[in-house]
Amino acid sequence: MNEKERLHRLLHELNIKPDKKYGQNFLISDQAISKIVEAAREFQPQQLIEIGPGLGALTLFLLNEKAPLTVVELDPKLADYWRPQLEDRAELILNDALKINWDDIDNKIESVLVSNLPYEISSSIVVDRSTDKILLKGMVLMFQREVAQRITATPNSKDYGVLSVIAQISWNIKKVVSLGPGAFFPPPKVHSQVLKFEPKASEVENKVKFLKFIKSCFAQRRKVINKSIQGYLASIRRPEKWDEVEKLFSKNSRAEQISVQTYVEMYNLIWEEN
Question: Domain 207-271: which topology?
Answer without folding.
Answer: Helicase, Ruva Protein; domain 3 (1.10.8)
